[in-house]
Design brief:
By secondary structure, the chain is an all-alpha fold. It is built from 13 helices and no strands.
């Protein structure tokens, strides 16, 4: 344990949080959200979702600066402020949610990967590609947490390049007028909000790394709030851009529209794959840490508390 590598706010909290925020929903479903909700509706959805995430981030940050933070991320913070029974109940739900979120990201990766190379995009095709990706990411996580986090710097650069390629892309799909509100045949706003909301919950990926931080009291507030803020500006900017450059009907029907309007499509492909895989590896790193911390507190069987780190 003494030789375990510790991380700062940027590598340990900000990077994994931002990469999970700017993930599969941004690339594969953001256009669909704008197409169904309109520009004003989309901005309202983004702002309401971020009010929730910012409030949660501020609450966690205030607790993190007030108490000693150990391994287990949100579970540890809640259990030490609200008690083991309440913290354990929330921790179990958080662990299950983190574990299942990995499948969300891998399905998004498989959908893009198979579609790009012309492989089968039916359920079995997605299962095969997703399973292979899951095994590869698990091996990387088992080799070293440091290696896994270092790969995220390259992924962050790929996402930045993909966004630049999108914003400098083609105008051939531009509408005659910008749709400000949802139109005829659109999905109800509450359904659109439900689809979009997981995109803003990614800041928990960084908090889950609390046991691997040099100074959790300092790193968690800075990294978490900065990731939420950057995600907010990116989503608002992307929503405005998409609504101006692409017709609503196309947005509602084509999930790969960002790839088609980009200045350089392979850059967007790299961004999609990087974002989905980094989000998945964030879940692979974070989920077991929550379970391990609960096992130390005897919420779950002690056998799950064994391991390194």
């Amino acid at each position: 344990m003494a030789g375990t590598k510790k991380f700062g706010a940027f590598a340990g909290v900000f990077t994994p949080s931002l990469l999970t925020i700017l993930g599969v929903i941004m690339y594969m479903r953001m256009g669909w959200v704008v197409g169904n909700a309109g520009l004003i509706g989309t901005l309202a959805i983004i702002l309401i979702a971020h009010v929730i995430s910012i409030s949660t981030g501020l609450s966690i940050s205030s607790i993190a600066t007030d108490k000693k933070v150990g391994a287990g991320g949100i579970y540890y913070i809640l259990s030490r402020s609200m008690g083991i029974p309440i913290g354990g109940a929330i921790g179990l739900a958080l662990y299950v949610g983190t574990a299942f979120s990995i499948s969300l990201y891998l399905i998004g990766f498989a959908e893009s990967f198979n579609g790009y190379f012309g492989f089968d995009t039916d359920i079995n095709g997605l299962r095969i590609t997703g399973s292979i990706a899951l095994v590869a990411l698990t091996i990387i996580a088992l080799i070293s947490t440091a290696v896994a986090l270092k790969t995220q710097f390259f992924i962050l650069a790929a996402i930045a390049i993909s966004l630049i390629a999108i914003f400098f892309g083609t105008h051939e799909f531009a509408p005659e007028s910008v749709a400000l509100f949802s139109g005829e045949g659109s999905v109800p706003l509450e359904v659109v909000f439900a689809i979009f909301f997981p995109a803003v919950t990614g800041f928990t990926a960084g908090i889950a790394m609390s046991g691997d931080l040099k100074d959790p009291k300092k790193s968690i507030p800075i990294g978490t709030l900065l990731a939420i803020a950057v995600g907010l500006f990116v989503y608002i900017g992307l929503a405005i851009f998409i609504s101006i450059k692409v017709n609503s009907e196309i947005l509602r029907s084509d999930y790969n529209i960002l790839m088609k309007i980009a200045l350089f499509a392979p850059a967007v492909v790299a961004g999609i794959w990087g974002a989905t895989l980094s989000s998945a590896i964030g879940g692979i790193l974070g989920g077991p840490r929550i379970l391990q911390a609960m096992s130390f507190d005897k919420v779950t069987p002690k056998i799950f508390g064994k391991g390194r780190g």
